[in-house]
Queue: 2 jobs
Job 1
Amino acid sequence: MRNFVGLRAIPEMEYHRPIALEQALKLLSELKEGCKIIAGGTDLVPAARRGRMSSSGHIHIIDISSIKDLDYIIKEDDMIRIGAVTKLSEVGASTVVKEHVPILAEAASQTGSLQVRNLGTIGGNLCNASPAADTAPPLLALDARVNIRGIDKQRLVPLKEFFTGPGETILAPGEILAEVQIPITEPTAGSCFIKLGRRNAFTLSIVSVATLVKVKDGIFDDVRIALGAVAPTPIRASKAEKYLTGKKVSEQVIDDGAKVVTSEVKPISDVRASARYRKDMSYIVTKRALTMCFNGSQVTSFAGKG
Ligand SMILES: Cc1cc2nc3c(=O)[nH]c(=O)nc-3n(C[C@H](O)[C@H](O)[C@H](O)COP(=O)(O)OP(=O)(O)OC[C@H]3O[C@@H](n4cnc5c(N)ncnc54)[C@H](O)[C@@H]3O)c2cc1C
């Protein structure tokens, strides 16, 4: 039987709810084509309602949200490991995350509304591969890796190699993103996450930026800048990072470094903002985020007009 929502028909589908990762991987390997993984469903269900989940064959929904071995936040030595189905609300509230990687806690806390964060998962946020995914810039700046599991193999991939285009990742059929691994790095200056949206809350980013800065003897020692919503995938601004590294810290150098970012972004115009506005704001938010790394403020968000 078909379910009609508004004018769109959600295609016929069979629902599976494995409670262990191995079960989910077995289902994916046996059922092959037509399988669709669902975690919180906050991206997938609206997409299905917009008619973006059509299939010529039978669809098998594999609901991984009840898999307990994918739901955890653990600190192990100098690494934080987060299971893929951990809710964004849990990531945002975690004392471990807040203490060691506050830019991730802030980004998770700013994603959507409370209802969305209580359903949406960190794995879903990454696998949906929106250029505006809020957890991507902090995780890129933190040099995070993702553990990808298949039925008889696993691979550990730097997050910067995970996204291949809007809505596209390196995940092969049958694979599940199982874990996000974040090396703990203490920024000697600071870190900052800024999300610029059309409103202060409940909104997708027009531009987002995460910065992490280490300084030694007044010199930029390690500078990390990652941006969202300004290119087909979330990006690291490697030219700006290179420009700043080794230079003496000053307002002018920060301003010049932030300007370099505009040569690295490739924004589009959409309902939220024009490409030009996004490019201009990439410079503004990067400069602000780098500056805030030096004044003790770890995190912020602000609204701008689109
Ligand atoms: C009202 C509203 C507001 C929103 N606001 C924001 C916002 O401000 N910022 C933002 O970044 N996002 C926002 N979103 C998008 C969404 O809530 C997040 O991206 C969320 O983290 C998605 O997680 P999920 O578990 O619900 O993913 P799902 O919808 O379950 O899945 C998303 C995609 O990822 C795949 N997938 C999920 N988990 C895995 C896994 N472990 N392995 C392999 N594939 C997987 C699914 O097959 C699907 O293609 C919003 C959504 C809504 C409805």
Job 2
Amino acid sequence: MTATAVDRLALARNEHMTFRANMGAGRHGWLRLTPAYGVRLVRERISHLPAGSVITDPFSGTGTTPLAAAELGHTGQSVDINPFLVWLGTVKTRRYAGGTLLATADATRAVVAAARARRGDAGLWQPGLFRIEKWWGPGALQALKALRAAIDAYDGAVRDLLDIGLCRSLISCSNAAFNHQSMSFKAATDDTALLDADDVERTIAAFDTEMATVIASARYDLLGSASVRRGDSRQVLADLPPADLVLTSPPYANRMSYIRELRPYMYWLRYLDAASDAGELDWRAIGGTWGTATSKLNTWVPEAETPVDAAMKAVCDNIAADGGRNGPLLATYVHKYHHDMWLHFRSITGHLKPGGRASYIIGNSTFYQHEVPAHEWYAAMLRALGYRDVRVETIRKRNSNKALFEYDVSGTKPA
Ligand SMILES: C[S@@+](CC[C@H](N)C(=O)[O-])C[C@H]1O[C@@H](n2cnc3c(N)ncnc32)[C@H](O)[C@@H]1O
């Protein structure tokens, strides 16, 4: 094996850098998001900081950074454009008093009893998720609707924890496979159309089990504190105390839609009501490209020049030329993504303390065999803003057959 091949294998093994490593890690494993980064990577990046440091994640996702920061005695703060993720981050990073956890255990028993006592699902609310019968068989769906109705009687922190339990069970009893980026569905067999009382009971029992896990991990106290708020990280983050470290994994330029992956949770928790809401929300996210977001790209015009416009134009011209009918649209996608990240870098620089470090975990991507080197363009943008000691470190290979890597692009804001 050549030295490069050995290096590649070593990088490929770095699974602890990804969401997979979070699944057994207490609150970090509450709900999964494929593009979440691993809590170990975050801990490695913040362990050297003095206790009480302020760490900001401008693209919060599932809240890995603020939770890890609070666990290690720091102040974690994060921002996300997606209201569901703001809720999730808030619930994950909250301190739960013993009384709240006892009340949640009581509420769980009551919710389970109410769901078991339901006969049929007449009059129960169900989410407007397109082709919902593909996601859940009739028994699981009936149980989820009964659980939803029973949970609706609660509010505050107890309700939030019950909702986490509901989210976990709706994934564990779904026909959808969540173990890769593009979800797939088990083929329906004839008998899945019939309501099976065992499926109803299995789903209610799964909720009960999930709640035990959630309550156990909510019990651990946090040494520091964390807050998660809604915002657009292309804009100035007003009212956020300045950060010692900005640590984040931003959206990648790979047309992945977070809304698409989060659909089941967002519908059941009533953050989405119709497919058009999803397109609207995706358009506001950097790199959003789902539903109506795609057609809006056709008429997009940049509001600012970026320091990488010349390099980007060369790559985008190739994508436009080789991508057939979709080429020009994807070239605009790549342009808009980096344009938006430039707006972000400009605004986040005002938020970082002088001498503070910014660290971005980002992957490159390819369109029609043309590499989009986001890591290099991030580094160029940081340099253009006057950052010192700008480094690009390769941390992981992302895909077995393509030249896709993950990098840590970092720099220090001048004192
Ligand atoms: C790769 S994910 C972050 C994953 C996170 N590090 C974790 O461990 O879960 C990127 C996040 O950026 C958010 N986002 C996209 N555009 C945004 C914007 N303009 N402002 C704030 N958040 C945004 C998305 O909603 C998504 O949650």
